[in-house]
Amino acid sequence: xxxxxxxxxxxxxxxxxGIAEADTDAELLLIxxxxxxxxxxxxxxxxxxxxxxxxxxxAMLSKRSSHIPLQHLTGxxxxxxxxxxxxxxxxxxxxxxxxxxxxxxxDGAVGASILDLCTGSGCIILSLLKYVNESVGIGTDxxxxxxxxxxxxxxxxxxxxxxxxxxxxEAVAGKYDVITSxxxxxxxxxxxxxxxxxxxxxxxxxxxxxxxGLVFYRRIVDEAADHLNPAGRVYLEIGFDQxxxxxxxxFARGFKDAEIIKDYSGLxxxxxxxx
Length: 275
Known about the structure:
The chain has 275 residues and is α/β, with parallel strands linked by helices.
């Protein structure tokens, strides 16, 4: 089987299984197995796969066809130009979350102390520590397995950070200039209707935001002021229909200029506010 025929087989197999981006996923699996570059089917279509490569590729196609996320098969996901290890214990970093990181950077966080709640893979705090000069930070999560992944990602990217097990602010000491979080925000009743890659493979604890999806926002906004320095800022990723409710929570707790930031698709994605 050569590179082009392998790609075509993979694309057809994934399309038949209802995978939305079948051509992209087929090529990315080939890249992972063969160690080639993107577009290899055009530059070297005649390249023959070894017996081992073909076997591994077909096995991965089978798993992807059953809706195991691509990133769980390759073990990594790109975010903010960095590579993060991912598995079933953390949410897969998504491009929309880059909006939150970019907003913190736009607001000028040089030298800031940063607290990242529900850190998961660590993608938010590690990206900020990489790109914001002289910043320091802590990431917290209630899941020890998630914290293990975050620690591996810190080592992978050569970033100095502290991770602690904490139920939101429970084990957090001191005050910070910036608080960030991408908390669970899916309504409990909506979990079953999620795409299988998310519903069956992302950790439920990182998805379920309670009956109205706002449980964690209430807790964070209620306690955030106690953990912020003067003029400290909070940045929260939100679901597409939660912006106004979270914004009003901030105003009710005395925060100023609570603002809704839209993502690349024009949907509300982040609410930010300051003391």
